[in-house]
Design a protein that fits this description.
Layout lengths: L2 H21 L3 H6 L2 E3 L12 E3 L2 E5 L4 E12 L2 E13 L11 E15 L2 E11 L4 E13 L2 E11 L4 E5 L6 E3 L9
Antiparallel strand pairs: 1-10, 2-4, 3-4, 4-5, 5-6, 6-7, 7-8, 8-9, 9-10, 9-11
Length: 186
């Protein structure tokens, strides 16, 4: 898979992971557990992706591309911002500049912010493992929000293949604030 498509999968997966983590389940179910299934979780490769940063350093020997300073990734209506983003790839003769990199993992650090429509997530850092299809957001305070609904923990783990998401408290307690007005009426 080429760099653009794999990065696109990362971006879309990130949106879905944070956005659907609290939309796919009823508010009552989320209030009782920090683990839920996200039915319908799918990755999409159909939209172009744009990456901007203050600097880009490609280290062919190490098979990494380092985007640093005001990193901004945009795909459709989704925006990811962070201080730094490192793309780890593998394979002989592959290169990010040729678009044929086999991406293994993407790390984002330094004030991670994700926004899509009314959905937002913030964390200190995040990792997307493309092989395992697992995305993890971590920090002293990981915050997921949609309108007035807010979820706070310190580690969000999303299994992209199954759609299972888990928000950990890391020693304290997971905090959830739900607005009853946001619940969909049937």
């Amino acid at each position: 898979m080429n760099f653009e498509r794999r990065t696109s999968s990362f971006k879309t997966g990130l949106l879905v992971a944070t956005g659907l983590a609290f939309l796919a389940c009823s508010p009552a179910a989320l209030a009782q557990a920090t683990k839920s299934n996200l039915n319908g979780l799918k990755l999409s490769n159909d939209q172009p992706i744009q990456i901007e940063s203050d600097a880009l350093e490609i280290r062919e020997q190490e098979k990494t591309a380092l985007f640093s300073g005001n990193v901004k990734v945009v795909q459709g209506t989704t925006t990811l911002q962070s201080g730094n983003m490192t793309v780890h790839y593998r394979g002989e003769g592959t290169s990010v500049t040729n678009g044929n990199a086999d991406i293994e993992k993407i790390d984002v650090t330094d004030k991670v912010f994700l926004s899509s429509g009314t959905q937002q997530a913030t964390a200190d850092k995040g990792t997307f493992n493309l092989d395992a299809q697992v995305f993890v957001l971590e920090g002293d305070r990981v915050v997921l929000s949609e309108g007035q609904n807010v979820f706070v923990g310190c580690k969000l783990t999303v299994q992209m293949n199954s759609g299972e998401a888990k928000l950990d408290s890391c020693g304290g307690r997971v905090q959830i604030q739900l607005d009853p007005k946001s619940q969909k009426k049937n």
